[in-house]
Amino acid sequence: MTLPALQRCIKSHDPQLLIVLDCGTNSRDEIEWLTARGIDSVVVDHHLPAEHETVETVLLNPKAWVESERGNWDLKLLCAAGLAFFLVQGMATELGLPAWDDSRAILLAGLASYVDMMPLVGLNRILVKHSLWQAQKASGLEKVPGLAFLEQLRQANKFTAGQLDEKTYGLFLGPCLNAPGRLGDAKDALRLLLAQDTSVAKRLAKKCFDLNERRKRIQHPLTARALAAAETKINFKVILLADKKCHPGVGGIIASDVKEAFNRPTIIASWHKLENADGGFWKASGRSIEEYNMGKIIQDAVSENLVESGGGHEMAGGFSFTESQREKLEHWLNENSGLDETHFVRKMEIIAPAENFGAGTWYGIYRTLEPFGNGNPEPSLVAMNVVLTRRPVRLEKSGNDVDEPSAKAAAAPVAWAMRGVFERNKKPIAVECTDLARAEKWKVKGRYDFDLWLTGWRFGTSHIYGFRAKPEKTS
Asked: In angstroms, rounded to a whole number, what is the distance separating the alpha carbons of residues 468 and 254?
């Protein structure tokens, strides 16, 4: 929240009460400016409070509550949309507001919670699961016509069509809603969610979809560039990449991709030129691992005058810094990370050998454990001593896109994003661990089948382990 933004808001709307969402916890000067003008305020936020006192107003931020209070651990995990849902739901119940639509609100709150990468435990899990139940109904998305039209666009694309699930939220709906803010006018996403006129909703859905396609075309070469640059910093505990060619709208996505590739906290900075002046500054987006509280680190960096401003939460954050601060900041981040090599080892939860149950039973178990995401990762199965009868089909991951397998390859084992592995290594491959890939389309004539996707491997000389498991006949 900035003073210029508040001034524009007051000039346009002349409010008596301003409800601030997803920011404001540490904006003491701005809240005092509002109060001096007789404007009341309510702050609904989930970002970490700074060490100094928070704003003097009505503040709904569980992270600002004293640690001695018990029973609020899952409230502290909510994003601003989740907090807003419970706030307005309580107000609607207390005041008897007839216009309140609980199912529409929970659809949006769950979508926002998943896209904001909140841990899928406690209240977040409830919100996302109920949101998906609503979205999966025959007419569930019609309560938000813009989302219904986006879903139509998804189903019309052979690469993205299929059952709506949490991956639809994270890989399609979320990116489409975020695209206007990255490349155009962020209000277009808001207009889409509010639109009740079907012609308006359809037009805005196509606009958001097209912007997301453009975003992918911009992002993919920049991601490849960042991954190559990160290879030179493989011994760094925190990867900081500052690239003047990076588009400012895709820094956060690139940071997420690099973080996933190297399992290290990653910060991507793009250059912002000053208007009507020489020079500029770096604007950074960061993504973190569980052992590294990025929001707290950013606050500490602000206190140390290593960055100009910034904030965030445990898993993500944003800040700005000058070129003169850059080298010292990178050194400080790595010296004060508190990380060692054990934190960079990928952890994979394995629940059982694949052969313990048939495919139908595993399908039911995984459906019970859903939705999967941050805080509730999809568990893996061990598949050992299953003969690999043919060469794996290689599917290459590129951003949110996956190359389409040929019909001929449908029954073959699948290797995901392993460009060159099989070409470079002529020795047999021993598969140590695999993921269970679930899909409704594999339920055919009362029988279930599934694929096991290669996620970990080693090179051996005497044995080849494979991927397939026998389907189980079910009623």
From this structure: 34
Count Cβ atoms below 10 Å from residue 220 Cβ, excluding itself: 17
- Determine the 3-state secondary structure of 58 from DSSP: strand
Show the domains of the chain with their CATH numbers. 1-68 (no CATH), 73-138 (no CATH), 144-232 (no CATH), 234-343 (3.10.310.30), 350-459 (no CATH)
- Whether 18 and 34 have beta carbons less than 8 Å apart is answered as yes
- Report the alpha-carbon distance of residue 303 to residue 51 in Å, rounded: 10
Q: What is the pLDDT of residues 222-280, one digit of tens each?
A: 999 999 999 999 899 999 999 999 998 899 999 999 998 899 999 999 999 887 667 89
Between CA 245 and CA 287 the distance in angstroms is 20
**Alpha-carbon dihedral angle through residues 358, 363, 364, 369, given to the nearest 10 degrees:** 130
pLDDT one-digit tens code per residue, 133-143: 999 998 889 99
pTM of the model: 0.78
Assess whether the previous peptide bond of 379 is cis (omega < 30° from 0): no
Terminal-residue alpha carbon distance, the chain: 57
DSSP calls for 373-434? BTTBPPPEEE--S----SPPEEE-EETTEEPPPPGGGTTS-EEES-TTHHHH--S-EEEEEE
- For tokens 């760094």, what's the residue? 236
Encoded tokens for 413: 């084992």
Question: Do residues 39 and 16 make contact, with C-beta atoms less than 8 angstroms apart?
Answer: yes
CA distances 468 to 131, 350, 387, 438, Å, are 33, 17, 8, 13
Q: What angle do CA 284, 289, 290 make, to 5 degrees?
A: 130
- Structure-token match 């290594």, residue found: 425
- Distance between CA atoms of 410 and 397, rounded to whole angstroms? 17
Q: Residue 375, exposed/middle/buried by CB under 10 A (0-12, 13-18, 19+)?
A: middle
